[in-house]
Amino acid sequence: MTQMANGMTIGRLAKEAGVNVETIRYYHRRGLLDEPRKPLGGQRRYPQSALERMGFIKRAQQLGFTLAEIQELLAYSDGRNWTPTRDLARRKYATLGLHLAQINRMRRALKRLIAKSLAGRGRGCCPIIASLAMRD
Hints:
By secondary structure, the chain is mainly α. It folds into 2 domains: about 1-75, Multidrug-efflux Transporter Regulator, Chain: A, Domain 2 (Orthogonal Bundle); about 80-135. About 70% of the residues lie in helices and about 0% in strands. The protein has 7 helices and no strands. The model has no long low-confidence stretch (mean pLDDT about 95).
């Protein structure tokens, strides 16, 4: 039997998933990944489905889902819960829109400060530092 047929050690799972072992352990504590039973005198072995679950988690993270949201998505992973899954995705989409608007405001403010800094040509206090030092 191959190593995959017997399952993977936590180190092998971490390597295959592109994470470190502590991430796997953290996912156990969060309830995102089941921890296999440890046989008497042996090592825990993770099935192929654990690697697939890790891929699911990573892809969800790439879309901006938090671990709490991923746990919710995992509850719908049978693919039959279209409405709650779609609702969660819509909420995430809206949240990302708010973040994007905030980032764009920050970029515009930085652009203005950079322009002031260039216009000042090194005379007086740097407008970037002055802006950061201002009290609200």
